[in-house]
Specification:
By secondary structure, the protein is mainly α. The chain is 62% helix and 0% strand. It is built from 8 helices and no strands. Helix 1 (25-45) runs parallel beside helix 2. The longest helix has 21 residues, at 25-45.
Length: 208
């Protein structure tokens, strides 16, 4: 927990010692899985009907008052309900409370941003592009923070998937190849790269 998030009044007991300044491990894996599921749900079936959308309570403005655990719970709840757009203020709050960078946070935030860009597809194209660029920026920030080969490959493959959604096949292929090089043992990543290479060699309409 960051020191910035412990603004409590003095009491009779001494303050608890500071924890290591890392993205809480108990939060990272769960939120990443939920965010990925929500992202693909948006991509496959589109936004939820208005009646099925999550009641945005508490209001996004209240995110600035939450500690890191409550901000995580609020982000998780909204992503789990397919409302990535509503989760963004809580991700920003989490980022403000982290004492040091962690690639898991940037990757999860990127996935939520991508989900939000798909969620608002009927709205401003400029807003969608802004969210997409912000998502790619978060991935760029995550990559140098990863230490393990699989972690780095996961980040690069996430970039490839986002580029695929945005209709950029050559860039998708290049990123899948980079992910394959980062972790040659990841067979699924190599298969994805080979698949895209085959698609680009045999386009549906050779005259295009």
């Amino acid at each position: 927990m960051s020191a910035r998030s412990r603004g409590r009044a003095p009491g009779p007991r001494p303050a608890a010692p500071a924890r290591p300044s890392r993205w809480p491990a108990a939060l990272a894996g769960t939120l990443l899985l939920i965010a990925i599921v929500a992202w693909w749900r948006w991509h496959a079936s589109g936004p939820l009907a208005p009646a099925a959308r999550l009641d945005a309570s508490p209001a996004p403005d209240s995110a600035a008052t939450l500690d890191i655990h409550r901000a995580y719970a609020a982000a998780k709840l909204r992503v789990d309900h397919g409302d990535c757009l509503a989760s963004l203020p809580y991700y920003r709050r989490i980022g403000a409370l982290l004492a040091s960078d962690a690639w898991e946070y940037h990757l999860e935030y990127a996935i939520a941003l991508q989900g939000a860009s798909v969620q608002i597809q009927a709205r401003s194209s400029w807003e969608r592009q802004r969210l997409m660029h912000e998502a790619l920026d978060q991935i760029d920030r995550a990559e140098p923070l990863a230490h393990g080969a699989r972690d780095r490959a996961t980040i690069i493959a996430t970039r490839a998937k986002q580029l695929r959604i945005w209709g950029l096949p050559w860039e998708t292929l290049l990123e899948f190849r980079r992910a394959q090089a980062a972790d040659p043992s990841w067979r699924e990543c190599a298969e994805s790269a080979d698949l895209y290479a085959g698609i680009l060699r045999r386009p549906a309409n050779p005259r295009e």
